[in-house]
Design a protein that fits this description.
Blueprint: H1 3-16, E1 20-22, E2 34-36, H2 40-57, E3 62-64, H3 74-79, H4 81-84, E4 86-91, E5 98-100, H5 101-127, H6 133-139, H7 141-162, H8 166-175, E6 192-195, E7 199-202, E8 210-213, H9 219-223, H10 226-232, E9 239-248, E10 263-273, H11 278-295, E11 303-307, E12 317-325, E13 328-339, H12 341-350, E14 356-358, E15 363-365, E16 368-375, H13 376-387, E17 388-392, E18 398-402, E19 413-417, H14 424-435, E20 441-443, H15 449-459, E21 463-467, H16 469-474, E22 476-481, E23 487-491, H17 495-502, H18 505-509
Parallel strand pairs: 3-9, 19-20, 19-21
Antiparallel strand pairs: 1-2, 4-5, 4-6, 7-8, 9-10, 10-16, 11-12, 12-13, 13-16, 14-15, 17-18, 21-22, 22-23
Helix pairs in contact: 2-13, 5-7, 5-8, 7-8
Bound molecules: glycyl-adenosine-5'-phosphate.
Length: about 500
């Protein structure tokens, strides 16, 4: 499937099979806001669980919290979000469309990258087995030219944004000849900063109400609880606090389905370390998080690191784990070395000491922080889009199959009676009743069994269990594997084992 087609299919499949609906659809929806449907909510919950286990269960020095979405307004002054949580926006005067200036420039650079990749692919084809990619990319003049151009552009953009030189960002767009992707017009306004936080009010009357913000990241709920958790949990440096929950951003350029939403969910972990050791932990978390991604089996070539040229106001190193979405490589997760910026800022604004007493050194210090921050919705999109396949079968027919990793699949098994008579329904229902204590399973007796298989393939159910006449004789059923479509006969009493083995966290996470 071509990438654009695949993305359209992802969106329509997500709706048709009860994964994602547009929010308040009967009123024509709300831009960049989505609802998770009956299967989507299960997939999302399972991804969250997969992350939580790897972070909290698998690290004795990481604990979880669930802080409130509404926080004291000074939090956002201290964190820098009131002053600096802005996007540089630019409008096209002809099309009246609004864009993020930095995204227009990054998209331009991605095109340079694609050109370099094409040169590499051509050379690979020409030289075959004797092709030395490392040598080629470091010596080929065209690849070197594209890479240098890309670097120069990104460095200049980073410097201009750091210096708040928005006039130069506009100049850069003009010099590169970047046109409105929709209309082709190059008639741009000046670049302006726009704060992304949603405001709200706390209080009964307009006069006494306090202005609040919906949190734009979950991380600050962790920082303000640092001391509470450290003391009550008797945590010793290095230790981490993990949290999952909603975050809100008034994204101006909200597109690409659930990739960029105005209300979304983050899974974040702040790891508190001794000052000076942050780079060691930054490298550790880069490796650990990439390994977590690889464990889901979506293909190692679909991930890459993208180190930041322009660092956020709180960071001294930062990288994105990018995923190969249907619209290209884009940020899936951020790993940031946040220094002691947040804790120090909260100390200053609250007047409370947010420090750790190190017995070995016999002194207090403000810990440094390495953060891992992944969007749950983006992870959902990565898994869902990567899993959706259209396959041509041996007999020439085709099937649509959602090859979700079994560990996160919403429904683990569907149980069918082959026919609706001879007592087969009762046996199938009894199997469901026994399994549903531990697993989300489904009973289906409608239509021919082949159609039921197709339905479950499209839903992403790893196993279909069919009760037939032989079941009555020897207590066996057929189990059909979604990916291979192979069937095997097993005893009813072996079904729980079969499912359990396919979704053992130990096997997946290690
Ligand atoms: N606490 C750090 C932080 O929030 P970020 O890079 O702004 O860093 C972290 O966000 C992750 O949250 C991103 O890598 C992305 O997966 C997700 N994310 C950010 N904005 C989003 C949006 N508008 N819609 C969906 N996911 C988003």
């Amino acid at each position: 499937m071509a990438n654009e087609d695949l993305f359209k299919k992802v969106i329509s499949h997500a709706k048709e099979y009860g994964y994602i609906f547009a929010s308040s659809e009967i009123y024509d929806g709300l831009s960049a806001v989505y609802d998770y449907a009956q299967n989507g909510v299960e997939l999302k919950k399972n991804i969250r669980e997969y992350w939580w286990r790897s972070m909290v269960f698998m690290h004795q020095n990481i604990v979880g919290i669930d802080a409130a979405i509404l926080m004291h307004p000074t939090t956002w002054k201290a964190s820098g979000h009131i002053d600096a949580f802005n996007d540089p926006l630019i409008d096209n005067k002809d099309s009246k469309k609004r864009y993020r200036a930095d995204v227009l420039i990054e998209d331009y650079c991605e095109k340079l990258n694609t050109k370099a990749q094409k040169e590499i692919a051509k050379a690979k084809k020409r030289f075959g087995d004797s092709f030395n990619e490392e040598e080629f990319v470091t010596t080929n003049p065209r690849v070197l030219k594209y890479r240098a151009q890309q670097k120069n552009i990104l460095t200049r953009m980073a410097q201009s944004l750091d210096n708040e030189d928005l006039a130069d960002v506009k100049l850069l767009i003009e010099e590169l000849g970047i046109a409105d992707p929709l209309s082709g017009s190059k008639n741009w306004t000046d670049v302006k900063q726009f704060n992304l936080m949603f405001g709200t009010k706390l209080g009964a009357s307009a006069e006494s109400a306090t202005d609040l913000f919906l949190r734009p990241e979950t991380a600050q709920g962790i920082f303000v609880n640092f001391l509470n958790v450290q003391k009550t949990g008797r945590m010793k440096i290095p230790f981490g606090i993990a949290q999952t929950g909603k975050a809100f951003r008034n994204e101006i350029v909200a597109r690409q389905f659930i990739f960029r939403m105005r209300e979304f969910e983050q899974m974040e972990m702040q790891f508190f370390v001794k000052p000076g050791e942050e780079m060691k932990w930054y490298d550790y978390w880069k490796k650990t998080r990439l390994k977590w991604h690889h464990s889901l089996g979506l293909g190692e070539k679909n991930y890459r690191f993208h180190d930041h040229e322009k660092l956020a106001h709180y960071a001294n190193a930062a990288t994105d784990i990018e995923f190969n979405f249907p619209f290209g490589f884009k940020e899936l997760e951020g790993i940031h070395s946040r220094t002691d910026f947040d804790l120090k800022a909260h100390e200053q604004h609250s007047g409370k000491k947010l420090q750790f007493f190190d017995h070995e050194q016999n002194k207090n210090y403000v810990p440094y922080v390495v953060e891992t921050s992944i969007g749950l919705d983006r992870m959902f999109l990565a898994i869902f889009s990567n899993s959706l396949k259209e396959e041509v079968l041996e007999d020439g027919s085709s099937r649509v199959v959602l090859k979700l990793p079994a560990i996160v699949a919403p429904i683990k098994a569907a149980v069918f009676p082959l026919v609706k008579k001879d007592g087969l329904q009762e046996i199938a229902k009894k199997i469901v009743e026994d399994l549903q204590w531990d697993y989300n399973v489904l009973y289906d007796e409608k239509d021919a069994v082949g159609r039921r298989y197709r339905r479950q393939d499209a839903l992403g159910t790893p196993y279909c269990i069919t009760v037939d006449h032989q079941t009555k004789e020897d207590q066996t059923v057929t189990v059909r594997n979604r990916n291979t479509m192979k069937q095997e006969r097993i005893l009813i009493s072996d079904i729980p084992n079969k499912i359990r083995n396919s979704i053992a966290y130990k096997d997946w996470l290690s």
